[in-house]
Amino acid sequence: MAFDIEMIKKVYAEMPAKVEQTRKQLGKPLTLTEKILYAHLADNLPTSAYERGNSYVNFNPDRVAMQDATAQMALLQFMQAGKSKAAVPSTVHADHLIQAKVGASTDLKTAEVSNKEVYDFLSSVSNRYGIGFWKPGAGIIHQVVLENYAFPGGMMIGTDSHTVNAGGLGMIAIGVGGADAVDVMAGMPWELKFPKLIGVKLTGKLNGWTAPKDIILKVAGILTVKGGTGCVVEYFGEGAKSLSCTGKGTICNMGAEIGATTSTFGYDESMERYLRATDRADVADAANSVKEHLTADPEVYANPEKYFDELIEINLDELEPHLNGPFTPDRATPISKMKEEAEKNGWPLKIEVGLIGSCTNSSYEDISRSASIAEQAAEKNLKAKGEFKITPGSEQVRYTIERDGLIDVFNKMGGEVFANACGPCIGMWARTGAEKQEKNTIVHSFNRNFAKRADGNPNTYAFVGSPELVTAMAIAGDLGFNPITDTLVNENGETVKLDEPTGYELPPQGFGVEDAGYQAPAEDGSDVEVVVNPESDRLQLLTPFAPWDGKNISNAKLLIKAKGKCTTDHISMAGPWLKFRGHLDNISNNMLIGGVNFFNDETNKVKSQLTGEYGEVPATQRGYKEAGIPTVVVGDHNYGEGSSREHAAMEPRHLGVRAVIVKSFARIHETNLKKQGMLGLTFANEADYDLVQEDDTFNFLDLDQFAPGKTLSVELVHADGSKDVITTNHTYNQQQIEWFKAGSALNLIKKQNA
């Protein structure tokens, strides 16, 4: 039986009337996205449709999920909210803190010792507040959610940008910062700007070497890393119905890489099969009773151009396998063009490592199709030229593929199985030799490939592809290899060709598992003690941020003018820094160390206006904080792209940065800044970015008149005494301005609950 089945049945019982009322009120057929969003409104149905991309709307999500790296800060904040129990079903998943080094068993044992303090905290705080806890080794949050919690037509938020993975089961699932999770767990509405809608019509059917991954790699190439910002992507068409449920999950997962709020698919037979295979026949039966409400109205898909703000069509019959990269997930190259592109751009052709799995591609289907290629390698006397690593997404998947002999198949080609955790995908990979920073190429089936992300080496060229393509590329050891047309020479000197991959949508013998790794919370956790050692370097109780004094910010110094791509990885790196995710002061020592300084093209080297000397960004900022001087960060386009990590907003806030002024923001990061009482502003005239000089002082001229829709004027005072006044825009509504005034959204919640 499914978790929280009564909650799911309640959602379905109320859905038909809500959908019918919405359709009547709006006077038009509805997309799936609209049905789910309007069915989860916290307020009464509006008299007219919300304005897409403009209206702020309050929702009541059905559930919350948190991974261990972000859960620490989320739950430290929740402890201040004055609640005795989480108001909605919530879970914590211990998946980010396990470093991939030796192999699954050893790495897991090492993590359990080195992270004991954090795991004990997460276990006890979950027990205390009625939250389910998935222990280390249970699996990656998004795979575990898909297997256990996701349900068609539901709405959830999660403190990880790849929460969107649950769209593969027809949910509206959205990545958020921890402060948003606190709102929902505290029983308050959750606010989101009503999204625009992008429709992706899939015709034809995948064949040969193409995989669901290639659909999203193609879409990323079309929309780029910011083309989906503020939008929900809804996939439909015969091609969509032909995909497996986990294949749909892969596509939705990487929707985070185009900046989309989320992505989703209408309920269909593949979702029903997956629900039944994962022991949730009760959910499938309940969904079947309202299935016409779990997809768009027929008129929408018949004339999609009338109902979506943007429409993309992809013919799966003609789609080619892709490799995206390096250094950005939207640089899309069909495999037939990769050799030419690599040679033209000087990308290293020799593939050092192939990695499959991760939250994006660790389903039974992915692993079985990859294993079919590995099996051929053994049969055709081919030895993998590159190293090969496998990361199962959950203990259920790992147990099942071991039972079915697939791990043995990978072992024959020299494969190594890592723990059921994020590992190399988020930089938790102790890769031998990475410290030499040599130029090299890796291929993987993960979702992100920013510089330094996988192994900390800025010279690792990472390319994203499907697991089956990655497996073939690792065998060939050549970035220019095209398995559709090219041959290989085996150990006997014979020329051989790899056959197309084959696999199973679901395990023929069903899923199996001995211990899934779940800890249910106490019925009454009021007596559970949550201990945080004041001497700990891993955990630190939070001190509320100071409220705004109501005055204009003046004499603020420029901390850094970031040049080009500045993702959350640049603002608050993961990898070895993950261990400090529960200690705000310690993790603040990584603040913006990856951002490129516009004035010297270097990272972690900025000028202090106090000393005139260059130093590390966090140390320079601590100097300003000690002197009581406010600072400003200036950035480029899509600032804060990538992860949902709110540490990228909390660290500057903690160290005394008052405002971030950029050309444009990624959605989650902008919200995180607002939640933490920061000013997140954009240049009204993008060219004003060029006016900012290294020794500038910022004076806010009309912040004391901060109001929705009103621009803010900022005076730049340059070192030579000359001045420029620039206009900045913001997207704060009245409620968000109240967060700013209170010092943070949490301060406001605490005040309201007092």
UniProtKB/TrEMBL annotation:
Residues 34-477 form the Aconitase/3-isopropylmalate dehydratase large subunit alpha/beta/alpha domain. Residues 557-686 form the Aconitase A/isopropylmalate dehydratase small subunit swivel domain. InterPro entries: Acnase/IPM_dHydase_lsu_aba_1/3 (IPR015931), Acoase/IPM_deHydtase_lsu_aba (IPR001030), Aconitase/3IPM_dehydase_swvl (IPR015928), Aconitase/IPM_isomerase (IPR050926), Aconitase_4Fe-4S_BS (IPR018136), Aconitase_4Fe-4S_dom (IPR036008), Aconitase_dom2 (IPR015932), Aconitase_mito-like (IPR006248). CDD domains: AcnA_Mitochondrial. One of its GO terms (molecular function) is aconitate hydratase activity. Its EC number is 4.2.1.3. Keywords: Iron, Iron-sulfur, Lyase, Metal-binding, Transit peptide, Tricarboxylic acid cycle. Pfam families: Aconitase (PF00330), Aconitase_C (PF00694). Pathway: Carbohydrate metabolism; tricarboxylic acid cycle; isocitrate from oxaloacetate: step 2/2. It catalyses: citrate = D-threo-isocitrate. Its cofactor is [4Fe-4S] cluster. The keyword Cell membrane does not apply. Belongs to the aconitase/IPM isomerase family. This is Aconitate hydratase A.
